[in-house]
Amino acid sequence: MAYDPTDAAAAFVAFGRIKLGETDLDGVFDHVADLARRTLPGAAQVSITLLRERGAATVARTGETSLRLDELQYERGAGPCLQAAAERTTVEVPDTAADDRWGGWGAEAARAGMGSVLSLSLPVGDAVSGALNVYGGRAHAFDAGAVTLAQTFVRYAAVALANAQLYDTTASLAQHMQAAMESRAVIEQAKGIIMGERRCTADEAFAILTKVSQDTNRKLRDVAAALVERTQRG
User: Fold this and answer.
1) Strand arrangement, sheet containing 129-136
2) Which of 117, 137, 171 is the last residue of a domain?
3) What is the pTM of this model?
4) d(CA 198, CA 205)
5) Which residue, 156, 171, 186, sits at the end of a domain?
6) Do 88 and 195 sit in the same domain of this protein?
7) Tens digits of residue pLDDT in 183-220
8) Beta-strand relationship, 55-61 and 43-52
9) For the chain, how big is the Rg over CA atoms in Å?
10) Alpha carbon 65 to chain centroid distance?
11) Looking at the structure, do residues 199 and 88 belong to the same domain, yes or no?
12) 68 and 83 co-located in one domain
């Protein structure tokens, strides 16, 4: 199958141009799936499967048929994308109509208009495994060159996704730290108000705030913020 190596090179360069500050992890998944569909020869639809503690899920897809065929695998607990993700390997289905693995899933894929499938291991960080699923609209859509290109593609994609996950985790941690700092600041303000009003120690002021929080079933930060706001208004 002929393909333009210039297009492939451009696709790999595109991974390096992803601006993590302008998208989230889901956006990167979507970008990878769309780039695979446009770059890999024979690709009709593409999806990305992730294996998580709560089960497998499709986190990106370029068409509804790929999603439907993915979910059929999740329901049955077997299929090329699950095998590729779990075993961290490449699974080829040259002719879905003639493939009798996975409880007849291939026949279902053929009836849905997908004649061949290529599922490739797509690790996302150290703890999460996944698969890039490339669906072909006819049998034998992926020759040896296409498979090699797809395997190169997922290596670049894995790096981009690992970077995106790290950025997402770091940004989330920074947000939590900022929230914690803001909570601590307002609690200290509230303690100062109580200490001034009741002539008590910092520990006694904190105990008063804690008791109000427990008695009213409200978060300590919310109790403190309400006191600070009321004092500022008064």
Assistant:
1) 55-61, 43-52, 129-136, 116-121, 90-93
2) 171
3) 0.64
4) 8
5) 171
6) no
7) 787 888 888 888 888 889 988 888 888 888 888 888 88
8) antiparallel
9) 26
10) 20
11) no
12) yes
